[in-house]
Amino acid sequence: MQVSELITAVSKFSFGRKIPTESDRLDYLFLLNLADIEYYACAKSSNLLRHEHDIFFNVNENFANIPDNYIYSIYSNKIKLKELDEKKVFTLPSNDGSYYFLDGKIFVDKTGLQSKEDPLDNNVKQYITLLVRPTRKILVEIVTDALTQVDRPIYPEEYHAGLIHGAVYYLCQTHEGFITKIAESRNNWLLAKSNLMAHYVKGV
Q1: Binning pLDDT at 50, 70 and 90, where does residue 171 land?
Q2: What percent of the chain has pLDDT over 70?
Q3: Cα dist. 104→34, 55, 94, 109, 180 in Å?
Q4: What is the chain's Cα-based Rg?
Q5: Across the strands, what pairs with 56?
Q6: Which of 45, 151, 155, 171 has its CA 20 to 30 A from that of 32?
Q7: What is the pLDDT of residues 29-39, one digit of tens each?
Q8: What's the pLDDT at 149?
Q9: How many other C-beta atoms lie within 10 A of the C-beta of residue 4?
Q10: How many distinct helices (H) and strands (E) make up the chain?
Q11: Contact between residue 172 and residue 178 where contact means Cβ atoms under 8 Å apart
């Protein structure tokens, strides 16, 4: 479901309004993002969410900035590279594909690294491939920054309704007189997170 559809659903589940006001939409979007933070926590360690990220090296440089993502492993030519013992960090090049991290950068022995075109400047450069955990992106109705935002949750669609339960649960906590609805929403929300975790734990 698109985020806009989720917002409309939250409105119907909470107060029965078919068309939420602009102010309501902002509030519901905030609550959907709270729910998405918890959903992401349920799924983030799964193999199903891991993806590859290429890092390119400029000519005559053996270092490059690393992303903020959690890094599972590092490869070149489909071969897993090994992290250099920190006692030997100043011995590169070691001619064995070693690497180490320092001050937000990765330093690599570039001997034998493969090369391809860097999409940022179209120059052919040596590169390595990181297997990383994706960073959670913010749910928005209209994407203005594809690096940090999405207009559709990353989870399979059959789990999107859980975000609605989570948003309604948080909404009920902000209003008095919703004790029964809070309990029902909480149960639905806990079940939704449990189902999502069961889906992603298969990929761990």
Answers
A1: confident
A2: 87
A3: 29, 13, 21, 17, 49
A4: 22
A5: 127
A6: 45
A7: 999 999 999 99
A8: 97
A9: 15
A10: 4, 10
A11: yes
C-alpha distance from residue 59 to each of 22, 28, 42, 56, 62 (Å): 51, 49, 41, 10, 8
Is residue 56 within 8 Å of residue 126, measured between CB atoms?
Answer: yes
* Spans of all domains in the chain: 3-47+136-201, 51-132
Q: Is 8 helix (H, G, I), strand (E, B) or coil?
A: helix
Q: What is the pLDDT of residue 90?
A: 55
Write phi, then psi, for 162 (nearest 5 degrees).
-60, -35
Q: What is the DSSP string of 148-199?
A: TEESS-SS-GGGHHHHHHHHHHHHHHTSTT-HHHHHHHHHHHHHHHHHHHHH
Cα separations in angstroms, 35 against 61, 111, 192: 43, 46, 11
Instruction: List pLDDT tens digits, range 90-113.
Output: 555 555 668 888 888 999 988 889
